[in-house]
Amino acid sequence: IEGDNYHALSVLNYTHQGKIDVIYIDPPYNTGNKDFKYNDHWVDKEDSYRHSKWLSFMSKRLQLAKLLLSNRGVIFISIDDNEYSQLKLLCNEIFGENNFIDTIIWKKTENIKMDSKFLSQNKDYILCYRRSGAIQDFAKEYSDIGRFKLEDEKGKYYLRKLDSLSSSYSRGMDYIIEYKGKRYYPGGSKIKWEERQKINPGKKAPTWLWSKTKYEEGLKNNEIVFKGGNIYNKVRYDGIAKKPYINIQNIVSQQTAQKELDDMFGKRVFDHPKPPQLIEWLVNLIENNKNITIVDFFAGSGTTGHAILNLNKDNIGKRTFILCTNNEENICSDICYPRIQKAIKGYQTPKGRKIAGLGGNLKYYKTAFVKNSISRDDLKMRITRECTEML
What we know:
Layout: H1 5-15, E1 20-25, E2 37-38, E3 41-42, H2 50-68, E4 69-79, H3 84-95, E5 100-107, E6 123-130, E7 140-142, E8 150-152, E9 155-161, E10 163-166, E11 177-179, E12 182-184, H4 190-198, E13 205-208, H5 212-220, E14 224-227, E15 230-236, E16 241-244, E17 248-249, H6 254-265, H7 276-283, E18 293-296, H8 303-315, E19 320-323, H9 331-345, E20 346-348, E21 354-356, H10 376-387
Parallel strand pairs: 1-4, 1-18, 5-17, 18-19
Antiparallel strand pairs: 2-3, 4-6, 5-6, 7-16, 8-9, 9-15, 10-13, 11-12, 14-15, 20-21
Helix pairs in contact: 1-2, 2-3, 7-8, 8-9
């Protein structure tokens, strides 16, 4: 959809309200370096209303975006330090603080910025909120069967030490285990254990990973191994997901994404695109995602659409996407739309390498104002006629 994304979101609330499974957006970061316009004027660093203008702009759009999400819908928002704290407070207000899922950190560049005065800023944030409590978890990462080298009558497993340096110390998890006349202490030291009992050791201190009740149950069920002065529990392979994905990701750098986009067009047409692999990873956090609908109303160069086409090809899915962007500097007509066409049909790089098409289809819409001279009934008929395809 070509047009102001506020208008596009308004239209989508007639045609797709409550029907969207995932929203991903990469809004202007409001750095003050001509990346954000408000009322047709660039907002610079010296503008005393810089943050409030950005929040006003985002609030109107996020309110409409929330209405698009289904009860199990999720929104991901890329942002950096300039507006992260403001955006999180705004999202708490719109989506509800209890619907905040996490802040994902993406390492966006491998390069060290040598002119940095303090630290080289190599990351972006991705804020994640759910529409409601109807969604309770994300997909999990499947365990690598190569780790499970041991086997007993119950199946394959590997050994994990039962004690660990906890980041949130609990005295209840810092108990003594007695087995065959020998005493075992978290961290292995009786002296240090006795010291911990006298004073609060703070957050960083050894504890058992299992409660005493769970340990006793594990010992009874042959899930505990005593070996070399240490205690281990058996981590079993049962063919299903075992562990959640972590919220710090080093997927593909922005430099790689830039090169791939430059190769598509044979020249530089857009700066700092997000990598499709990042969007693919985010979508794959959603369980049963093969038939979902994804919206990106800050579509830019069309990375989200490209990512969904990749997923459909790789995972044999029927995911659909809706991209919204204005046509400032012809970004919609000359970059976003042609990029998705190239991804669908295939293209050739400047070095002559042929990239096969991913398949799929694409339609192009434009938002427009309806003249107020039209009667109300004629207006309804025209809107119905114009929106029939989208409906």
